[in-house]
Specification:
InterPro entries: LOG_fam (IPR031100), LOG_family_nucleotidases (IPR052341). It comes from Paracoccus denitrificans (strain Pd 1222). It catalyses: AMP + H2O = D-ribose 5-phosphate + adenine. Pfam families: Lysine_decarbox. Its EC number is 3.2.2.4. With 284 residues, the protein is of the alpha/beta class. It has a domain of 191 residues: Rossmann fold (3-Layer(aba) Sandwich). The chain is 41% helix and 15% strand. It contains 12 helices and 9 strands. The strands form 2 sheets. It has a 7-stranded parallel β-sheet, with helices on both faces. Helix 4 runs parallel beside helix 8.
């Protein structure tokens, strides 16, 4: 027998195998205690309901663990086994908003919004065949390319994940992330783990520092053998060859020539899907 909390339908509790009162019962009981000087004192609060206590410097290891566990448990409960990650710039406009882009170069990149949208739609149509267990689109939850990815999944009638993070000037999650799969992070490192833990493929669209940070961290994990090799697809060859001199890295010896084989460059959603479809795990 399993029961769900009314506050959070995604939280699943296994039937207790012991006779002790559970934490929810005590939380409810604590709300009904008489109001006295003692019960108002911070020391009297149950530790796991005391936000001031949980935010103490010494509790950082616990907060790291909670940020790892919460999305993990929710995605496990949804039966999500694999994802298709979409990194890309928050500033890339949709074609109908390209006139408002801050630079002509940014406006010229707007067609990648449509490619991201189409790619996400194609992958989500495939995801629906597994009832949303495989090939689930996973973005950073924001605007630009991220919005396009969640929009494409929404148009296909499937779910998609948004891994947001608290930033000083960050906007709210885009409207197309599946609400039950819209997460918010404090720690960049844990957020990056969730991007890659279930990744079946990684796609990277033109973007700035954040996109490059995510791209290079994932590439480093694959290059060093800390992560198995998966399709790693960069949309926009002209953009990526202009902003990064990949061949110069190999010529300088700072990477090996074979490291360049970790990356595929494409211009369209169809090309990316073809790479994923024809992927053969390389021999170690």
């Amino acid at each position: 027998m399993r029961r769900f909390l009314p506050e959070d339908r995604m939280t699943e509790l296994d039937e207790r195998s012991h006779p002790f009162r559970d934490s929810h019962q005590d939380v409810e009981a604590a709300r009904t205690i008489p109001d006295t000087a003692q019960t108002r004192a911070p020391a009297y609060r149950l530790a796991f309901t005391d936000s001031e206590f949980l935010l103490r410097e010494e509790l950082r290891p616990v907060r790291l663990q909670l940020e790892l566990l919460k999305p993990q448990m929710i995605m496990d409960a949804r039966g999500i086994r694999s994802t298709v990650v979409m990194f890309g710039g928050a500033r890339i406009p949709s074609p109908d908003r390209r006139e408002g882009a801050r630079t002509p170069a940014l406006a010229a990149l707007s067609h990648y919004y449509d490619e991201a949208r189409r790619f996400a739609r194609l992958m989500t149509e495939r995801s629906l065949k597994s009832y949303g267990a495989e090939d689930v689109i996973c973005t950073g939850g924001g605007p630009g390319v991220m919005e396009a990815g969640n929009l494409g999944a929404h148009e296909a009638g499937g779910a998609s994940i948004g891994l947001s993070i608290v930033l000083p000037h960050e906007q709210t999650p885009n409207a197309y992330v599946t609400p039950d799969l819209c997460f918010n992070f404090h720690y960049f490192a844990i957020r990056k783990m969730h991007f890659l833990m279930r990744a079946k493929a990684v796609t990277v669209f033109p973007g700035g520092f954040g996109t490059m940070d995510e791209m290079f961290e994932a590439l480093t994990l694959i290059q060093t053998g800390r992560m198995r090799r998966i399709p790693f697809i960069l949309f926009g060859p002209e953009f990526w060859h202009k902003v990064i001199n990949w061949e110069a890295l190999a010529e300088a010896g700072t990477i090996s020539p074979e490291d360049l084989e970790l990356i595929s460059f494409v211009e369209s959603a169809d090309e990316a899907v073809e790479i994923i479809d024809n992927w053969v795990v390389p021999c170690p």
